[in-house]
Amino acid sequence: MSDRRRLIVVANRAPSSYALEDGRRVARRGAGGLVTSLGPLVSRHDVTWIASAISAEDRAVAAEGAVDETARDGSRYRLHLIAHPPETYDLYYNVIANPVLWFVQHGLWDRKHVPAGDLTRAWQEGYVPVNEAFAAAVVEELEREPAAVFFHDYHLYLAPALVRSRRPEAPLAHFTHIPWVEPDRWSVLPEPFVRSIHEGLLANDVTGFHTERWRAAFLASARSLGLEPDEERVTAHPISIDPDEFAEIARSEDVCERERELEARRPERLILRVDRTDPSKNVPRGLEAFRLLLERRPDLRGKVGMLALLDPSRQSIPEYVEERRRIEAAAAELEAGFPGALMLQIADDFPASVAAYKQFDVLLVNAVMDGLNLVAKEASVVNEREGLVVLSVNAGAYEELRDWVVPVEPLDVEATVDALEAALALGKEERRERQEAIREHVRAHDLKRWIAAQLADLDRASSIRRP
Question: What are phi and psi of 260, to 5 degrees?
Fold first, then answer.
């Protein structure tokens, strides 16, 4: 018996983005880890994907109505793009979703940074109407044919309650892919905003997070507002990867070519970081820690190098532009003191990242806070050098991988130096055992299992008749 079902996936980004080349419309793979993570939904179920039109050609497609599209594996899905007014989308994405919600939920925002008047306008004229547009698109699809609805991430906190008010029978789930913070962290925002965020999420049959830590923080923040969440409907399942698919990518010619280039110039021992140029990723402190390690350990100079592969992130937002400036300044200081010790690339180059995954001796993930961090899983699955992971205790993946990584407090640069030094000193057999343990864990807790858990939770919760 087939277990295929009809699903409506709702996310800001789509699996495909459109452009014109030589006057012809072409579809390109959409950007972002969430798009990659949800790929198996498209291949195993009958999916309608609702997303924002980002490019000019996306907007042209949106004007034509929903279209049938093909995923990378040949699976068909229905794509429903929404063309928001440009100013509305700018307020929604570049003022509220990023950086405000992202910064608050990564513990990076405080009261002195919040411009109350501008924030209220951006909320009322940006975040609210975009969520209303998403809710209207969901209702339109539900009227076409019943389906389970799967909302994703911090862009769409209000939409579930709007759909629930119009289609009370619809099975609704929302998964938040970034951290959730304790009640006091939310106090930097106006209380009506915070309340509507929590009420929006609690309108779902299931509200999901990566870890028990984020789940507990959500329950605490909801209760601080006088809300009464049903704990059984608030779940925690850490997302994962498809190990077989990732191994296939690692064997591809594009990746192998990049690997040969890296092998030709790599030092004896390689410390790797693969990140976005995002303030939450804490790249400048990682670069500083490596510089201090070389100062502390002259015997490592010329033998240990760092490769930093950084994807330029959200460069239309001032805070992200400033973070890139800080990264480049830290890199320049490192290079001035230790010429040739750092290989820095700021570009979107996925094959180079996977090639580096295969070659690292130490992987540094020192994020200030991360919902999960798939890099720690991806890299460990394909690494060929008994690579060891130095992992922030504030990364969601730490909850799963803590027994096999070297932990680090991300804001403590000296502690990061100590962690790098300890990772480099660990014996080969211990490194191999830790890496294999991570691989076995990821294979047992893969992406298919995560998706199955989401759908099982939704089936259980939505089967309970609402009062």
Answer: -60, -40
